[in-house]
Amino acid sequence: MNNPKKIAGEKAASFIKDGMTVGLGTGSTAFFAIHKIGARVKEEGLKLKCIATSIESENLAKELNIPIFGFEEIKEIDITIDGADEVDKNFNLIKGGGGALLREKIIAYITKHYIIIVDETKHVESLGKFHLPVEVVQFGWQRTFDHLQNLGCEIKLREKNKEVFITDNGNYILDCNFKKIENPESLQTTIHNIPGVVECGLFINRTNTLIIGKPSGEIEVL
Ligand code: 5RP
């Protein structure tokens, strides 16, 4: 049996060409893409300019000798490869299961070719079964929680190892269970209007290519 995340990640890495600026995603699927990019840098001598969506991915890239740059140098990205928690039939996404949604979204919005890599369990008819991550500032987070709850979801303050989870940006994450999200675009607008919200994990109209890995070894490129 094949590892669907590995084959999807490695396939995505094959889209990268010498001289490109590349966004590196976060999570267990992006991990395989970053490893493959590292191998291509080493073996083919690819000259890339990369930027990472989290401290974790930046550290991994540095270990693999992938050249990392900051926003002083990078204004636009040729290709970003990232994972997702859910992808609907219109290629809208829920992201942020790994807590990197804010940096991931900033990078997605300056990317020309946004490639999403998933296993087939994440390809769904409509979004919402996966709890929507919303990054909020620590100040008054309880009241931001109330406003989100009034939208009709159940919410959990994210924890890791029994401590409150803190993002790379020093914020909290509220995981919101909407069960089914009928209109992702309007929900995103509503959430953006709540004071204390930094960003939500809905990625609308961003994905250019979806790569789905399957245990059989088949890879679907859509
Ligand atoms: C991190 C993310 C990840 O891309 C998403 O959670 C998917 O992760 P994985 O590939 O480990 O299943 O959005 O913030």
From TrEMBL:
Gene Ontology biological process: D-ribose metabolic process; pentose-phosphate shunt, non-oxidative branch
Keyword Isomerase (UniProt): yes
Transmembrane regions listed in the UniProt entry: none
Catalytic machinery residues: 104 (proton acceptor)
GO CC terms, sorted: cytosol
Top-tier EC class: isomerase
Catalytic activity: aldehydo-D-ribose 5-phosphate = D-ribulose 5-phosphate
Enzyme Commission no: 5.3.1.6
InterPro entries xrefs: NagB/RpiA_transferase-like, Ribose5P_isomerase_typA_subgr, Ribose5P_isomerase_type_A
GO MF annotations in UniProt: ribose-5-phosphate isomerase activity
Pathway: Carbohydrate degradation; pentose phosphate pathway; D-ribose 5-phosphate from D-ribulose 5-phosphate (non-oxidative stage): step 1/1
UniProt keyword annotations, A-Z: Isomerase
Pfam families tied to this protein: Rib_5-P_isom_A (PF06026)
Binding, substrate: 26-29, 82-85, 95-98, 122
Subunit and interaction comment: Homodimer.
HAMAP family in the record: Rib_5P_isom_A
Similarity annotation: Belongs to the ribose 5-phosphate isomerase family.
Function: Catalyzes the reversible conversion of ribose-5-phosphate to ribulose 5-phosphate.
NCBIfam families in the record: PRK00702.1, rpiA
Name recorded for this polypeptide: Ribose-5-phosphate isomerase A
Taxonomy of the source species: Bacteria, Pseudomonadati, Bacteroidota, Chitinophagia, Chitinophagales
